[in-house]
Structure to design on (122 residues):
């Protein structure tokens, strides 16, 4: 599993400043993880049925904190909000939400809710 992030901008590059440059991405490995189909309440099924399948990705907080530090983000929430998505077996899934679970005020796992592209939902 990889987190697809925008590449750092090049200062002083006129084509990039004008939006003429092709966007570049960097893929950051997420490990260890647990990947599973998201559980939904019966009332939520009707609301999300037309928006694509949902999945959960549980990511080690140690791995997330390493990425936050190496990329220079202020917090994990900023990291996940900036990401284009999570690439799983060649499919880019959108990060719908990101939450953390804590013990004694320290995060130990991050739960990402991912949405599959509508065209790939069967």
């Amino acid at each position: 599993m990889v987190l697809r992030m925008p590449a750092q901008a090049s200062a002083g590059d006129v084509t990039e400043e004008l939006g003429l440059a092709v966007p570049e991405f960097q893929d950051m490995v997420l490990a260890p993880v647990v990947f599973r189909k998201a559980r939904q309440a019966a009332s939520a099924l009707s609301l999300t049925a037309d928006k694509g399948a949902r999945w959960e990705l549980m990511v080690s907080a140690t791995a997330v904190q390493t990425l936050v530090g190496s990329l220079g983000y202020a917090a994990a929430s900023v990291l996940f909000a900036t990401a284009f998505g999570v690439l799983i077996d060649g499919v880019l899934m959108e990060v719908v939400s990101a939450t953390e679970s804590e013990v004694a005020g320290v995060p130990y796992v991050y739960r990402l809710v991912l949405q599959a592209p509508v065209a790939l939902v069967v």
Q: What stands out?
A: The radius of gyration is 16 Å. Helices lie at 14-17, 42-48, 61-71, 76-82.
